[in-house]
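# nightly structure sweep
# worker-07 picked up a monomer target from the shared queue
# config: single-sequence mode, recycle default, output format = structure tokens
# input follows
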Amino acid sequence: MRILFAGTPEPAVASLNALINAGHHVVGVLTRTDAKIGRKRVLTPSPVAERATELELPVIKADSFAGESGQAAIAEIQELQADLGAVVAYGGLLPQTMLDMLPKGWVNLHFSLLPAYRGAAPVQWAIINQEPATGAAVFQLEAGLDTGPVFATLSRALAPEETSGEVLADLAVSGGRLLSETLFDIAAGSAEATPQQGEASWAPKITSRDVQIDAYQPADAVLGLINGASPAPGAWATLDGDGTKAQRFKIGGAAPVSDPPDQGKAPGEFIIEPHRVLLVCQDGAIELTRVQPSGKKMLVASDWAHGVDPSIGLHTSATHPTEFDVDEG
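# output follows
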């Protein structure tokens, strides 16, 4: 089959590589337009666009398929004469005219066990909700949001200390293999898609406003929030107790603690030991693995703790975190 690959972020690159390495005939790549990245807002091609250029594949960039630019993108896609489209985290909905364009339609690799966690951030929400496992599914794309019949799935256990970035990187590789195998089955005429079964749940895009830390929550809930939001947008709070103006403080990873010391600390306070930093929560503590003070790079938590005022803690209350203006970047 002649395959058009559609994807944008880094996890989608693994699937593109899997298709190329398996010998699939990828005739071109559809991706989002260049985005402004970093503090200097440099206009940068997507990771999929960069990899496609390295592979010398035609690259079509589109955020929508309306207007003159959208129609131009549709014309470019038609010129490729693809039989099937393979979508992995493209980042936009395809209109019905696009879904009807290719003879064998479009398939999508989604990082959940559908119908669970339909939407933009399935791995993040699975970790935030402390699910014991997640997975990936290859399904037939249709007009609904992640509603199409499923060709194949894989399952993967979740460890409490894993971040969404780590899980996504692993699923990108195993999911890429699953997508490749499914495309071979479709080409051979042996693939069968089964309607989704069970109750649907949703995984909308996560923003910084969703991941402000409340240390008065149970330890496992705080742990899930931190690891689900890592690396982006990053769970955060503000620091209190060092005599300075409250500053934004991100936590980039955490691990469960089975034996927190009893030091009479309140939720939001730290327990700083020689080789670990603990955050006290409602019913125990968690170990912080990486932290990012305001205006600085992410650090190993024990390195950050050197010289820190032991009275410092997270600014919080027994009912909910205090709301501060949030940088969505």
